[in-house]
Known about the structure:
With 95 residues, the chain is mainly alpha-helical. The chain has one domain. It is 53% helix and 8% strand. 11% of the residues are buried.
Amino acid sequence: MNYKIKCIRCKKNYQLVVKPTRYVTCYECQKSELVGEITDVEMKKMFDIPEQFYKDNMFLRDIKIKYLMYKNLSEKQVAAFIKAVEKMKKASEEK
């Protein structure tokens, strides 16, 4: 079940969520945090996905922000990111 919740920062944009989430932030509020230089070739390739995916999925934004902050991700985070991107690509192809 999908529903929309207002962003906790700007309180005007809505974000689509699947399950109850405590801190919902919209793409516009997190856009500045997503900007940064990625030097690792593998990570650069992994994060090179359409911007619409980042707009639609809060989880993908969160993983990229964490990588930009800590310059490291666990194997489980990478696997979950790749799985979510593949799922979104499949869904966009079916439309």
